Amino acid sequence: MQQILRRKSMLGQARETVSRVVEGLKDEIDTMQMDILQSNQVLRAFKQAPWRIQTQTLAWFSILILATLVVGGLYLAVASRAGNAGRDLQYYEQQKTDLVRENDRLRAQLANLRNMDHMAARALALGFVPATPEQVYYIAVDDYPIDPGPAPLPVTVSAPVPATADEAAAAALVARADQGWLTQSLTGLYETVFSSGEGE
Amino acid sequence: MQDTIFSRLRWVTGGMALTALLIVFQLVRIQFGSNTGYFRDLGDEVSQQPREFAPARGRIFDRDGELLATNDVQYEVGINPNFVIRPDDVVRVLTEALSLSESEIRTAIDSDDRYVLIARPVSAEVGEYINRAQETDGVNISGVSLTPIDHRAYPGGVLGAGTLGFVGYNQLNNQIGYYGVEGFYNDLLSGKSVQGIQQLVPFDTEPNPVPAQGADLVLTLDRDIQFLVEGILRDAVQRYGAESGTIVVMDPQTGEILAMASDPSFDPNNYGAATLPEPLNAGVTGQYEPGSTFKVLTMAAALDSGLVTPNTPFTDNGVIEVGGAEIRNWDGGAWGAVDMTGCMRHSLNVCMAYLSTSMGANTFYDYMKAFGIGSKTNVDLSAESPGHLKVPGDTDWYDSDLGTNSFGQGVAVTPLQLLTAIGAVANDGVMMQPHILKEVRNGDASHTTSIQPLGQPITADTARTLSAMLATSLETGEAQDALVPGYRIAGKTGTASIPVPGGYDETQTIASFVGWGPIDDPKFLVLVRLDRPSASIWGSETAAPTFGVLAQRLVVLMQIPPDDVRVQMAATQP
Predict the structure, then answer these.
(1) Cβ B568–A173 below 8 Å, yes or no?
(2) Out of B188, B380, B565, closest to residue A138 by CB
(3) Contacts of B56 in chain A (CB under 8 A)
(4) Could you say which of A166, A178, A193 has the minimum Cβ distance to residue B215?
(5) Over pLDDT 70: what percentage of chain B?
(6) φ, ψ for residue A151 (rounded to 5)?
(7) If DSSP codes are grouped into helix, strand and coil, which group holds residue B562?
(8) Does A77 share its domain with A61?
């Protein structure tokens, strides 16, 4: 019985303790709510007027438009210069083509005026006549250097065909002729001739 | 009321915004959507054009730098009917410039087509006339289109036409060289074109790619000699009533071709105007049975093989049997006791057949092969023929061929092939490679071809001996019209029968002459060939005088002093 009474007493103490804690918490909540209410009152106090917000929005928009215009303007300027340069390039390329053609035409015209028919006709009209060997006089001048003639021939010629030449000897000579001197002579010619034109 | 306006404005604004949004959406879809490639291609079609950037074709010069082939401009004239504003002006200008009637021009102007071709090609002068009209105040010929065309021009006209060839256009409208130098060196002359894109929008324009220019060629041809040769050949063909003719002039010491002419010829500036001669360049293509000029080679083989000397006697009975065939002289007569010089002087077939049979087939044909008979010379000209030499073992060779071949029957050569072979006799036994290219130039790069011996079929002694024999036989024989006073010339006439089915044409011949001089230092080697001359069938009466006329002018043009002056000059040399 005593134990029961002791437990009841302990239970009562516990209740009181809990009640005190709850009360403390309530006070704390009330304090916080008051703080919150006070803080709301501060925000409301500094909120901007609507016309200011509109002005700011307009300013940002204007800045954006201005930046776009500046960038667009720069782009247009650069593009316009590129376009002009392109037009100039096209013009100069065309002019180059025209000048090359004109040069060719003039060169052909000059060659036509210098062709043998014209020259011979003019010479005859001027009273010239073809010379005969009897009309040409050669004078021997002492120590006058004369054209030494063609360079000595290469020594790669084949031996003469002997009287008893067999097929092999003749075949060797024929093979020499068939080797294609031009193929040998022109070896590397294409590379030599066209190397300067490539990569320009 | 105000609410209605604001409501409508809102709708309009909304509609515009929606449209703008759709446009932006479409732009984004075109730029980044699944059909990007299609739209890009569509844009490229309009803004750029694939184009072949072709270089100017190289020019061709003679050995002294005179232009033989160059580039010129011609025009294509067309009408865009939709752009014609003043038809009367267009009709007046075009009828004045072109040989077209007013009705033809008016039909073109009234056409529903976008473009009507009026004339192609027209000359540069006509193009300039139309250009000037376009710039004249008070004249409006808008709608007339003038397109430049690259054109190959030959300032000399027919001069060297067969040797130069001509330039035509292939299916892609590119210039292609045909025949002669133009054909053989087409790759060098045409350069290397470059495939590129031509940007039509200025923003994207880039410099045009630069193709490798066509190389300029300097030939061994001498324009003055070529002109002289063509004039003399034309005259000879007319004078002797020949069907056609060929003359080739070569420097026997270098193999350089100085002139090569065929008659009839053609104008390469307008090669489509008439039927082209066949063959176009008989010097390298026209193979024929050479007849007696071939005897030079037979005698060279006989001397070189040690079978005979110039003084070896021979008794001509007027007939010899070889392989079952009877061979007789050109006049059917018997000339009795002669020596080898006499054999050449009288051009005895019987003597030649005796020599070839005495040498034997192997030796004779070995020599002929060594002279390059039956093989191409590999000259740098298009369409060279190899000729034809039958040898023992061939199905078409018979024993009698050994006899007939010895005097140039049953064997086919080209003029250049025979000239090259006989060049060995003129040039101390050394046969030189015939060639026509002297130098290639392209910008700073150049290449000079070197002279090249083909072989030495006979010794220098044999060559000198035979030259002297031929000079003597010319001086005392029937072809003295070929001589040039003051100069020792060697040469041999030829009167070749023309093979026809079943035998030879008894009435017509190919008359020819091969000669060179001065024989101690030969500067020119000439072959004259006249086909079917009607005035006389004999080479001594047609080709030999033609050679004589030419040689008399050649020694002046080539500044070759007479023999006595040269001896005197040599004596004064330090």
Answers:
(1) no
(2) B565
(3) 100, 104
(4) A193
(5) 99
(6) -65, 155
(7) coil
(8) yes
